[in-house]
Amino acid sequence: MFKRLAFLLLVGLLAWAYQAIQPPPPKLCGSPGGPLVTASRIKLRDGRYLAYKEHGVPKEVARYKIIYVHAFGSTRHDALIATTVTQEVLEDLGAYIVSFDRPGYGESDPDPKRTRKSLALDIEELGDQLGLGSKFYVIGYSMGGQVIWKCLQYIPHRLAGATLIAPVVNYWWPGLPANLYGAYYKQPPRDQWALRVAHHIPWLIYWWNTQKLFPTSSVVSSSNPNMNIFSRQDLEIIRNANVSERDNKVQAKQQGEFESVLRDMMIGFGIWEFDPLDLKNPFAGKEGSVHLWQGDEDQLVPVELQRYIAEKLPWIHYHELPGAGHLFPAADGISEAILKALLIEEK
C-alpha cells in the first residue's frame, strides 16, 4: 500500500510540474475571445498573418524603401526611426518605411516553429508582397537590431543597406572572447538567471518568468521592473513618454507573453547556427553599407561588446554616442541622423 501511495504521489507531482511549465495557448487576433484585427496584414506562405504599418512617402514614389524591425516588448507602432522624424524630413529623403509586428507580437500570428532563419525569411516575404523591389534597406533596434544579423546571414542578396541600433548581443556567440564575458555580470542577478534559463533550459522559460520563488527578468516583468537598468538619458526619455507609447507595450503581449517576449528570449539567447563575428561584408563592391549605433552609457547592452564587434568586423560603420543610453533613438535628432547616415552617407 505504501509503495502504491508513493507512486501515485510521484505521478501527481510530475503531472503538476508538467502543467506548471506549460504556457497557455495564445489568444490569436481575430479568434473568438481574442484581440481584434485592426492592422493591415499579409498572409505568409505558411498561412500565418503578419501585421504591418506604413510611414513616410508612398512606396510607389519612394527613393528608399526600408523595413524596420521593432525592439523587445514593442510593436509596429514603435518605429522610432519613423515616428521621431518629421514627415518633412521623410519627404525630403523620399523614404518609405514599413514596420511590422514580429511573430506573436501585436497582431502578427505566433510562429511556434520560429527560428533565426525564419524571421529573416518573413522579412523577405514582407518585402515581396508589398512590392519593395529586388533590394530594400533594413533597420532594427535592440532585439530587432539582433534580427539584422540574421538578415545579413540569410538574405544579404536582398539588402540595399542595413543599420543595427543598440543590437542585443548573445553572450554565447562563439566568437566573443572570455574576457568580455564580464559584461554579462554587470547585469542584475535576476537578469543573468533569466538569460541562463533561456539559453540552457528554454523549456523552463515560461515557469521561470511566472513563478514567485525567485525574481524574474527585469526586462520581462511589468509589475516589478528594475529601473537601474536604465541610464540617466533613458530615465529622462521614459519620463517624457506619452500614453500611446505605454499602450503599445500592453498591445505587444496581448496574444500571450510566451509567444511574444519569452520566445524572443529563447531565439535571441539560444544556440545560434552561425556566428555574426564570422560574417563577410555583403557590400564588398561598396553598393551599400552596414551601420552599428551604440550609446556608451547603455546599461542593457554593454558598449564594450559592440566595440569588439566593430573591431572584428571593420567593414561596419561604427557610431558610438557619448552619454547615450539604450533608448537614444528617441532623443532629439538621433533617428534623423541614423537615416541620413544609411541612405545618403551623411556623417
Verbal overview:
This protein is an alpha/beta fold and 347 residues long. The protein is 35% helix and 14% strand. The protein is built from 12 helices and 8 strands. An 8-stranded mixed sheet has the order 1-2-4-3-5-6-7-8, with helices on both faces. Helix 4 (116-129) packs across helix 5 (143-154). The longest helix is centred in the N-terminal third of the chain and has 20 residues, at 2-21. The chain is globular, with a radius of gyration of 21 Å. The N and C termini lie far apart (80 Å). The mean pLDDT is 90.
Give the secondary structure arrangement, pairings included.
Elements: H1 2-21, E1 40-43, E2 49-56, E3 64-69, H2 80-83, H3 87-93, E4 95-100, H4 116-129, E5 136-141, H5 143-154, E6 159-165, H6 189-200, H7 205-208, H8 232-239, H9 243-252, H10 258-268, E7 290-295, H11 303-312, E8 317-321, H12 334-343
Parallel strand pairs: 3-4, 3-5, 5-6, 6-7, 7-8
Antiparallel strand pairs: 1-2, 2-4
Helix pairs in contact: 4-5
